[in-house]
Design brief:
34 strands, 5% helix, 53% strand
Length: 724
């Protein structure tokens, strides 16, 4: 069953406009209805002000330095310099499954962007359309890419147009750690938006690393390798005052994207139909990224930070290899800008406040100059404003409660004829609470979502409002008499709003679509063990069994007989049962040798229950949904000795089908890759040099992540960095 739209292109439609001038990008004036926002949030502010004046009844608590005892102490964190972490306390481990990569464990992966690093998490499937600049999205536990919230430094990354976040645009050069939560974070003090996703990915950028008394630090990096890759980057950390630091980071990426691949096809009896070798073309990438952040910690306590981000790219879309077409000419231009900030403070010893704000402007132009099929030249402009206020009240030593309210405004315009020009106001309000005693911790939340859409088309103005409640419950319990063994579980019902493409795309959208709903159940175990002695060893094991039910799934179905005529409908139903398991260990050997290892495994049965009448041979009923393997996993190991390090990583994706009709003609073979990294780090005067060499896809396996989008074979990458 085909799902619309693909993340990299809108639906083809004739456009009677000339090519847009790409030399200038006018920044459309962004309306700021602050009066309406203040009216929405005023009751919350009044409540917070009143509560902050309540007298404290317990001894003073340092709420900004209480320990995070759920964090690991293994190599993932020990490789980082000492950091001051601020935030609320978490008693016991996370109640929801969480996976984290940071420090050297992240740097030594065979990855240059966030999407590549996500392949090493269990339960995560990467949708990669190939090429250096190919779109890369993730699907966690088979619930769809749009069900995953992505947050950058605590604030959401949005795409109201199609709900897809291309993680390939976010470089690891400026990333401190990546964390994946199933369900939601075990936090009371967080924005309402953090409760509004089935799964969440948190990307945290690097904070300034300045030794005492040093006013600045500079890191220059140059990366090159296969596909004509040239990737210089520069990072400057500054100490503006005793309590204010800043960082500026920028990079340029140039790549031809050309690589050779081999394609073979077989008849149904297994005999070879054809075998050819070709070069992947039109996969070039030209991008620039600049971001700057300022961090402060006032004398009165708390912290604040502000960030400005700009990304610009011009890339080719190699397209699918079908009908003996080996080269495509489609191109895409992206310009993304956002300004965001947050402030955390504590007006009293029992109250914490968190405020967030963001303004974003995005522009995407898609060009298909091929007139033999249909000429397309569409330009989309997205505007977004986001405001949030959250609070945490420490009612007793064991009981916390929180209130959060968010407001978000989105607008989409396009040069298409009769485009609906939708505008959406979204109000999110969340109540949350947590209770901890001994080795037991329970938490719950209730989220209210009100989304009001307004469209303008054909001289008419239409309005549509949707309201939903979303509950969540989670608990974790340290088993009596055990050493580091914990039981955890959660229940959550959440939904995603239909995107603007789903609702209002010309000749395709369906304004009466219902939100896509997901119900999640999870039960898991975690075990941690640390032993000292001559050979210190740290081990962590996790296993989670889960069941997800997706209803009112939004899919595209044919409308009439036209090749490009489709309609969005709520007819999809998917049932997902799976098991995620991870194992990580760190062993310290004699002679300053350290060995790190990590294993992940996922078993997943995700079946399509949409249409019971579509059964039998070639039917989709009860079939494994497209591109979800029954078995998948990864293995990474890293060996460190003084300034030398070597790493090996392995990724396996089992057999799949490219549609829910699980017949031999739709079968996709398993694929796997082996990657090696070697590095040397040494001080040379005032500069610390770091040289890294990577060999990716060591055995030169030919494979597709998505059918007809061939991936690169064996390739190389070299990185030289200098830290001053």
């Amino acid at each position: 069953m085909r799902v619309y739209p693909p993340p990299f292109s809108p639906l083809p439609r004739p456009v009677l406009t000339r090519h847009a001038d790409m030399k200038r990008l006018p920044l459309t004036r962004l309306p700021m209805p602050l009066i309406a926002t203040a009216r929405l949030l005023m009751p919350l502010f009044i409540t917070l002000a009143c509560v902050s004046r309540l007298p404290a009844e317990t001894p003073s608590i340092d709420i900004f330095s209480r320990s995070f005892d759920h964090q690991q102490t293994d190599s993932i964190f020990s490789a980082l310099p000492e950091l001051t972490v601020t935030g609320e306390a978490v008693t016991g481990a996370e109640a929801s499954p969480v996976q984290r990569l940071s420090g050297r464990a992240l740097e030594n992966l065979a990855a240059t962007n966030v999407a590549d690093a996500m392949r090493y998490f269990s339960g995560v499937q990467l949708k990669d359309y190939g090429g250096v600049g190919g779109v890369k999205t993730i699907d966690v536990r088979s619930m769809g890419s749009s069900q995953t919230g992505v947050f950058y430094d605590g604030l959401p990354l949005g795409n109201a147009q199609n709900g897809q976040i291309d993680l390939g645009k976010y470089s690891l050069d400026n990333v401190e750690d990546i964390t994946v939560y199933n369900g939601q974070k075990s936090r009371v003090l967080q924005p309402a938006r953090d409760f509004a996703s089935a799964t969440a990915v948190y990307i945290r950028s690097r904070r300034p690393r300045l030794p005492e008394g040093k006013p600045w630090a500079l890191t220059a990096r140059f990366r090159t390798g296969s596909f004509g890759l040239v990737n210089p980057s520069l990072r400057l950390d500054l100490r503006l005052s005793e309590r204010v630091t800043a960082t500026i980071n920028g990079e340029i990426t140039e790549a031809s994207g050309k690589y050779r691949f081999r394609y073979r096809s077989f008849f149904s009896d297994g005999t070879l139909a054809w075998d050819t070798t070709a070069t992947r073309l039109n996969g070039d990438l030209h991008s620039q990224r600049v971001e700057a952040s300022v961090y402060g910690s006032p004398d009165g306590g708390g912290e604040w930070q502000a960030k400005v981000y700009f990304y610009n790219s011009d890339k080719g879309i190699p397209g699918a290899i079908v009908n003996n077409v080996w080269k495509n000419s489609q191109r895409q231009w992206d310009r993304n800008f956002f300004l965001q900030g947050n402030w955390r403070t504590s007006p009293s010893e029992r109250v914490q406040l968190l405020f967030n704000a963001k303004c974003a402007l995005d522009r995407m132009r898609y060009l298909n100059p091929d007139t033999t099929l249909m000429h397309i030249d569409n330009t989309f402009h997205q505007q977004e404003t986001y405001l949030s206020a959250a609070s945490r009240f420490i009612l007793t030593d064991d009981w916390d409660a929180g209130v959060a309210a968010d407001w978000q405004w989105d607008r989409l315009t396009c040069n298409m004829v009769n485009f609906a020009r939708p505008t959406r106001h979204t109000l999110l309000a969340a109540l949350s609470s947590s209770y901890a005693t001994g080795g037991f911790r329970a938490e719950g939340s209730l989220l209210l979502t009100v989304a009001a859409d307004r469209t303008h088309a054909g001289g008419l103005t239409l309005r549509h409002t949707r309201t939903r409640w979303s509950p969540a419950l989670a608990a974790t319990w340290t088993l009596p008499g055990s050493t580091g063994l914990r039981l955890r579980g959660f229940f959550k019902r959440i939904f995603r709003m239909p995107t603007f493409n789903d609702l209002y795309y010309t000749d395709v959208g369906n304004a009466d679509l219902r939100p896509e709903t997901v119900t999640q159940y999870d039960l898991g175990l975690t075990w941690r063990h640390t032993s000292a002695g001559r050979l210190p060893l740290s081990i962590e094991l996790t296993a989670d069994a889960y069941h997800n039910r997706v209803t009112d799934k939004i899919i595209a179905v044919p409308k009439g007989t036209g090749q490009y005529r489709w309609m969005m409908m709520n007819i999809g139903r998917v049932r997902i049962t799976g098991l995620d398991a991870t194992a990580s260990a760190t062993l310290t050997l004699p002679l300053e040798v350290t060995l790190h290892g990590r294993l992940t495994y996922t078993w997943q049965r995700a079946r399509d229950y949409t249409d019971p009448s579509d059964d039998g041979d070639g039917g989709t009923y009860r079939g494994q949904i497209a591109y979800i393997p029954l078995h998948s996993g990864s293995a990474t190991t890293r060996l460190e000795w003084r300034g030398l390090h070597a790493g090996y990583s392995f990724i396996y994706v089992g057999e799949r089908w490219h549609t829910s009709a699980n017949i031999p003609a739709n079968h996709e073979q398993p694929w796997y890759t082996h990657d090696l990294t070697f590095g040397w780090r040494q001080r040379a005067g005032r500069c610390v040099l770091d040289l890294t060499a990577e060999i990716n896809n060591l055995l030169d396996q030919q494979y597709d992540v998505i059918r007809n989008y061939p991936m690169p074979g064996r390739n190389f990458r070299f990185t030289l960095s200098c830290e001053i």
